[in-house]
């Protein structure tokens, strides 16, 4: 990649939403920081403690490694709420988020950074990409639920094949503008976030990833399916209300969300 540039220009801030992730966070931070430390730009990690009741916050606070880690508290539960808080707290030119368990391998981050520096606005991991290496879901009910949810999401997001992979990166100003309008606190937040980016004229690029179905997921079909469907229908209704409006100009300058 050429000489390593450790100036602030081109810095990347990676958000990790974490609710009761004490059992997995340390390994996740070690894996992610190892990749980020090899990038040709400054990189940081923001762990968002989403109303955890275990030692998640303490692990993040005491973490020491090759990449700076900061802790952000989010008293409101919900992955969407945590991602929103994390993205709005960033200031870097490039930002994004990934899951604490590193189910999506972060080894692709050098390519993601190169694409962002070349002008890409939204880059998301896709388990449906033909070149992805994906471990099949071990739980049949969850697999069926994911397939059903995916079909409902495609028309809302303009054909995105995998809205729910927890690996998404953005031009920083766009991420903060889109997150500022995010109202979905639960697991369907990804759809609304991508819709908000689309409304601003941003193209969404899906890339192949390595993905493993990690034990310990907090998502439950029985507990969360109804709420996800309700949120999805609300996002679709809002998207349809704005479909006739002129497209917004792509974000070029830093936007500050209140």
Automatic annotation (TrEMBL):
Gene3D superfamilies: Spore Coat Polysaccharide Biosynthesis Protein SpsA, Chain A. Keywords: Glycosyltransferase, Transferase. It is an enzyme of class 2 (transferase). Its EC number is 2.4.-.-. It comes from Actinoallomurus acaciae. Residues 14-167 form the Glycosyltransferase 2-like domain. This is Glycosyltransferase. The keyword Transferase applies. The keyword Metal-binding does not apply. One of its GO terms (molecular function) is glycosyltransferase activity. It comes from the Bacteria. InterPro entries: Glyco_trans_2-like, Nucleotide-diphossugar_trans.
């Amino acid at each position: 990649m050429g000489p390593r540039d450790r100036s602030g220009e081109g810095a990347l801030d990676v958000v990790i939403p974490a609710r009761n992730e004490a059992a997995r966070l340390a390994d996740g931070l070690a894996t992610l920081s190892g990749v980020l430390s090899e990038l040709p730009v400054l990189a940081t990690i923001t762990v968002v403690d989403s109303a955890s009741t275990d030692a998640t916050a303490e692990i993040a606070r005491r973490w020491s490694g090759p990449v700076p880690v900061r802790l952000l508290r989010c008293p409101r539960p919900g992955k969407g709420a945590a991602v929103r808080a994390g993205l709005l707290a960033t200031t870097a030119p490039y930002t994004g988020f990934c899951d604490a368990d590193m189910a999506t391998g972060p080894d692709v981050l050098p390519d993601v950074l190169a694409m962002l520096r070349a002008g890409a606005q939204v880059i998301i991991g896709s388990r449906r990409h033909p070149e992805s290496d994906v471990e099949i879901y071990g739980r049949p009910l969850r697999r069926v639920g994911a397939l059903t949810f995916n079909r409902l999401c495609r028309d809302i997001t303009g054909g995105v094949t995998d809205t729910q992979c927890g690996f998404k990166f953005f031009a920083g100003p766009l991420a903060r503008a889109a997150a500022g309008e995010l109202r979905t606190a639960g697991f369907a937040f990804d759809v609304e976030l991508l819709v908000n980016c689309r409304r601003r004229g941003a193209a969404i690029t899906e890339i192949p990833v390595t993905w493993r179905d990690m034990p310990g997921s907090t998502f439950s079909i029985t507990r969360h399916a109804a709420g996800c469907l309700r949120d999805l229908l609300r996002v679709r209704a809002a998207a349809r209300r704005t479909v006739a409006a002129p497209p917004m100009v792509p974000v070029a300058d830093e936007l500050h969300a209140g």
